[in-house]
Amino acid sequence: MNNEEVSHEQSLVVHDLGHAAHVHHHKQSFITKYIFSQDHKIISRQFLITGIIWALIGGLFSVIFRLQLGYPDSTFPFLQDLLGHWAPGGKLDPEFYYALVTMHGTILVFFVLTAGLSGTFANFLIPLQVGARDMASPFLNMLSYWFFFSASIVMFCSLFLQTGPASGGWTIYPPLSALGDAMSGSKTGMDMWLASMGLFIISQLLAGLNYITTILNMRTKGMSMTRLPLTIWSLFFTAVLGVLSFPVLLSAVVLLLFDRHLGTSFFLSDIVIGGKILPNEGGSPILFQHLFWFLGHPEVYIIALPAMGITSEVISVNSRKPIFGYMAMVGSFFAIAALSFMVWAHHMFVTGLNPFLGSFFVLLTLLIAVPSAIKVFNWLTTLWKGSIRFTPGMLFAIGFVSLFISGGLTGIWLGNSSLDIHLHDTYFVVAHFHLVMGVASMFGMFAGVYHWFPKMFGRYMNNTLSYIHFWITIAGAYCIFWPMHYEGLAGMPRRYYDFSNWESFKMFGGLNEFISVVALIVFATQLLFIFNFFYSIFKGRKVTTPNPWGATTLEWTTPIRPGHGNWISEIPEVYRWPYDYGKDGRDFIPQTEPVGENENRH
Amino acid sequence: METALARTKTHLWGGGRSPFNVSYGKLMMWYFLMSDSFTFGAFLISYGSIRFSLNYWVNHNYVFNEFPFTEANLPLAFVSLMTFILIFSSVTMVLAVHEGHKMNKKGVEKWLALTILGGLCFLGSQAWEWTGLITGHHKVLVDGAIQYWGTTVSHNPWGPKVLFHGEMVATPGPVAFGGYFFGITGFHGFHVFTGVIINSIMLTKTRLGHFEKRGHYEMIEKAGLYWHFVDLVWVFVFLCFYLI
Ligand code: HEM
Ligand SMILES: [Cu+2]
């Protein structure tokens, strides 16, 4: 069966819906329309809303552990009401502090910035921007969401275990994570973490396979690869990274489960625990780190690339200028994707890696800075002399660029293995990855939500609330993470419960308090966003024109509230690249417009 | 449809068609197999890195020398038979796909059934081999006394031999052997098992005439890709555990 047959089958289905637009309530029940839906646009919203719920939980966790870090000597009685025996007398239990940090990392990295970010935008944008009725396999697409959902349920349930959720850090290094006797968080909580991650990996696999095949196979006529918007290119490479790196995490998960329950010794050797000598020998905990970071490093780019794609698109649309260096952008996506498989050991410079081997990883790590810098340069030159419209989406896209620069520069410090001896596992690393990945990709996600909200829900979000959201969040992000560089340079280690025992870190007491206060404010501001989001879905100003931003890409050629199948009649054909802004005296030329006789070639 | 293909042949990547001229389902299967090969790759590379960090492994000719219904010492004979069965089932799968192209329902049924049979034989053999290893009684010198051990994830009776009361006796070998052997062959066996299930579903669908109605047997081709992949992985597993 080839592609044309497929699209033919689908267009028949869609015709049905198109004609029955007013009566389709009779045809689809609530369940098939909104719950077990195979429409990529619904699935995208499911990912988005699940992601938002997770972000709320993960963010709340960070506020709670920031309370401990900012006010190590105080008690907060309300914590006992909230957490029960995990906060006796209003003082956070040290074990639970680790649980909170671990869950914060796991939730934000995997559930929010992987599933929430690519899940939302890959699902929403790929069919709409390549000109397809739906994903290659809408059914597997639906499954991918429901696997994510079940992963979520398992992880969520683990929060309520008597022994607490996994607490060994989001990187779950053995032997700590392999031995239930090592700490309470390594008991059932760890098993549920592993089970949840297994489900999550399946979900990512199904999703990634779908994204790749849709982009390759389902492009509309004329949509050659070099006419794809950069969002699609970024999502393509994201999917490739996921399909090739998550299976390695699966191997690590499986081996760790065996070590935990079948008495194998993959990662364990010569361990004495509570005075008892364990029989395990010959295993290697470093092996786990290799397996983990072979996923882990591509994973950080799985998080960053979609944000980069969204940023490229939003910046170009709102500067009313073609993106600068389209092919360089595609090339640097490719370079980043390829290199990201060859740098994983920069997370392991001080864990017993051979220093000679380390020097190769230094070289390759620093090489990644080149394509990253190319991207930054191109964003800035796109902005340069543009007729910039400071929409909320645009502000967040510019914010992404700012944060990516700030966080990327410290990456170059860390990439030098000799400097990393000092900086590893300090707050410097925390500052680095929060700026470059955590906050920056959140900004990419916000940019995407604000920019495509009119397409997703047929309404606008409230602008005033959006501006407040932006300015407090960016100022807050810098206030939170900038000082952490100084703490890290002074040697303050990450993942500690209390620093007041160290004379040398006493000077940071006030700073830590400041960071915690700002964290609280920024968290509250996100509630504003969530309010704005849900309020606008139902009560926002209605979109009245199909193309409110004056964009060239295909999603804006659909009806304001597209049904399943996206285009009512034929799928439009594409004649040009997606960045014809300010060309030949015209503000923008849609991709669907044939190239005129006397038009300049770009 | 044929003419449409011919018309756009010059613009492979121009949109409106599959650049590789394959359906999305097959493309997905290919990418899935690529992904799965990374899982196996991770296992095998882990195995390799641990094995070569140890200064003693096991001698396959002693470990894998049993054959059903005989006490004879037949090193690697049984696993060769298993490998032969699995590869033969790949051949029958090719024939099933071939009959599918010819739209010959009876032929597809016959070869698919044989493929399933091959898969089941392989799984049965693996079960027999595992049982033999786990329940075996091999003399091991542990802390100055003789014990009788099977091969498990925590016991390895195949270590270096030492002289004990005038007799050469094995000492405990690296436990990593059992872990990786059972872990990896088990994971592969799990793949064979899912393959058998998939093939059984295909056989049922063939019998019910689903593919005949649809006008093509592409599902069989996709199942075939998976089956060949599982065989290919076995070749690597065989190489890494029984030969090297
Ligand atoms: C210029 C490019 C970059 C370089 C050279 C770089 C280098 C490094 C190095 C060497 C470390 C290890 C530090 C340590 O643990 O001692 C690190 C940590 C980290 N980086 Fe980067 N990085 C770069 C960009 C990025 C990007 C773009 C992201 C994500 C989008 C990212 C996310 C992370 C994360 C999450 C960690 C910490 C993981 C953990 O230990 O929990 N980095 N980076
Ligand atoms: Cu990294």
Structure commentary:
The complex is a heterodimer of chains A (602) and B (244). Chain A is built from 17 helices and 4 strands. Chain A has 602 residues and is mainly alpha-helical. Chain A has one domain (34-588): Cytochrome c oxidase-like, subunit I domain (Cytochrome C Oxidase, Chain A, Up-down Bundle), CATH 1.20.210.10. In chain A, strands 1-2 form a two-stranded antiparallel ribbon. In chain A, strands 3-4 form a two-stranded antiparallel ribbon. In chain A, a hairpin with a 2-residue loop joins strand 1 (272-273) and strand 2. In chain A, helix 4 (40-70) runs parallel beside helix 7, helix 6 (94-130) runs antiparallel to helix 9 (230-261) and helix 8 (188-217) runs antiparallel to helix 9 (230-261). The longest helix of chain A is centred in the first third of the chain and has 37 residues, at 94-130. Chain A is globular and about 85 Å long. In chain A, 55% of the residues are buried. Chain B has 8 helices and 4 strands; from the N terminus they run αααααββββααα. In chain B, the strands form 2 sheets. Chain B has a two-stranded antiparallel ribbon with strand order 1-2. The radius of gyration of chain B is 23 Å and the shape is elongated. Mean pLDDT of chain B is 91; it is low at 1-9. By secondary structure, chain B is mainly alpha-helical. Chain B has one domain: Cytochrome c oxidase, subunit III, four-helix bundle (Four Helix Bundle (Hemerythrin (Met), subunit A)), CATH 1.20.120. Chain B is 66% helix and 7% strand. The interface between A and B is large, with 57 and 47 residues. The structure holds protoporphyrin IX containing FE and copper (II) ion. Copper (II) ion binds next to helix 10 of chain A.
